[in-house]
Specification:
Helices cover 40% and strands 7% of the residues. It has 212 residues and is mainly alpha-helical. The N and C termini lie far apart (38 Å).
Length: 212
């Protein structure tokens, strides 16, 4: 099965060393996603589907948590034990239009679903798992393309899960946590792989001035 779908669903401003032909985020792409709600809704739908594979659920409370109650942006049924590589992560379904339905900003939360505890956590809550790199990519892509709140909710859930796993020996490495934190919190013009001490001093990111 193909493993390169992740670079197409969640592109980055930086070229992929694994798949150099994969699309990258340009200034034009950046501006389009920031100005077009329907593009962000499609990205949110992709995020929702990959979260399902990880055993997580994106919950949206309309109007910042008041009125309307929580909703899910994608109610498609799927075998949740299926590897994301084997399915169409970005297939049609609910598109997460909550952002456009209310003038008040929605509130996003990510938390484990019931199947996280039964089987889904085995997909990625392990040491040296390739999904840890994917998660870094997903966090950065969502922030760059306008889903900052969703990325923040995802990162908060990751931190909670990692804290809980410490009681079992800390299966999520400090290195993975470092890259997730960088992807979730650093200025957008700095990639997670740039070292803190020299990223800006060395002038990196000047070619991505539109991310500043």
């Amino acid at each position: 099965s193909s493993h390169n779908y992740i670079q197409y669903l969640f592109p980055l401003p930086e070229p992929s060393p694994i798949n150099p032909s994969a699309p990258i985020i340009t200034e034009t792409t950046f501006s389009a996603f920031r100005s077009r709600p329907e593009l962000r809704s499609q990205l949110r739908r992709s995020l929702t589907r990959i979260l399902q594979f990880y055993g997580l659920e994106l919950i949206i409370s309309k109007g910042g948590g008041g009125g309307g109650g929580p909703s899910s942006p994608n109610n498609d049924s799927k075998n949740e034990n299926e590897d994301a590589d084997g399915g169409d992560v970005d297939r049609s379904g609910g598109a997460g239009e909550v952002e456009e339905q209310s003038k008040a900003p929605p509130h996003y939360r990510v938390h484990p679903s019931p199947h996280f505890y039964t089987h889904a956590s085995r997909n990625w809550v392990t040491r040296f798992n390739h999904n840890h790199l994917r998660i870094t990519r997903i966090l950065r892509c969502c922030r760059v393309l306008g889903l900052q709140d969703e990325a923040a909710a995802f990162y908060a859930a990751l931190v909670d899960i990692a804290e809980g796993e410490k009681q079992q020996g800390g299966v999520i490495s400090p290195r993975s946590l470092m890259f997730w934190r960088r992807a979730a919190e650093r200025p957008l013009y700095l990639a997670p792989e740039d070292d803190d001490e020299d990223a800006d001093v060395m002038g990196r990111g000047k070619e991505k001035h539109w991310l500043r």
